[in-house]
Amino acid sequence: MKQYSKLAEIRISKGLIQKDVAQAAGVTRAFYTQVENGTRVPSLKAAKAMADILGVSLDVFFDALGVTKWNSNVMMKKGLTPRSLISNSSKEVMT
């Protein structure tokens, strides 16, 4: 029996294939596959798009990638929060 990553399990439970998620998120299937396998970490903008497509929160999405509370605490000490990063990335897209 094949062992899937947490992210793959979420995708499969929604009846989606990698190509569907990748296209809807605006990334290549190869990139999404790397994210799902844990060899790449998406930008916050791409992560938000993937999480939305998969119907999960960013917390669940990052948990499935193995982002730990320690990672979050380091970001918070730098004054970064997921919400501020989304706001900043949205501003960059608009300019």
General description of the model:
The chain is an all-alpha fold. The protein has one domain: lambda repressor-like DNA-binding domains (434 Repressor (Amino-terminal Domain), Orthogonal Bundle), CATH 1.10.260. Helix 4 packs across helix 5.
Summarize the structure.
By secondary structure, this protein is mainly α. 69% of the residues lie in helices and 0% in strands.
Q: What do we call the CATH homologous superfamily?
A: lambda repressor-like DNA-binding domains
Order of helices and strands: HHHHHHH
Measured by DSSP, the beta-strand proportion falls in under 5%
CATH class reads Mainly Alpha
Q: Count of DSSP helices?
A: 7
Largest sheet: none
Question: What ranges have pLDDT less than 50 throughout 5 or more consecutive residues?
Answer: 86-95
Name the CATH architecture.
Answer: Orthogonal Bundle
The number of distinct structural domains comes to: 1
List the helices and strands and how they pair.
Elements: H1 6-13, H2 18-25, H3 29-37, H4 44-54, H5 58-65, H6 69-77, H7 82-94
Helix pairs in contact: 2-3, 2-4, 4-5
Organism: Thermoanaerobacterium thermosaccharolyticum (Clostridium thermosaccharolyticum)
Protein name: Xre family transcriptional regulator
GO molecular function: DNA binding
Tags for this model:
DNA binding; 69% helix; mainly alpha; 7 helices; 434 Repressor (Amino-terminal Domain); disordered C terminus; globular; 95 residues
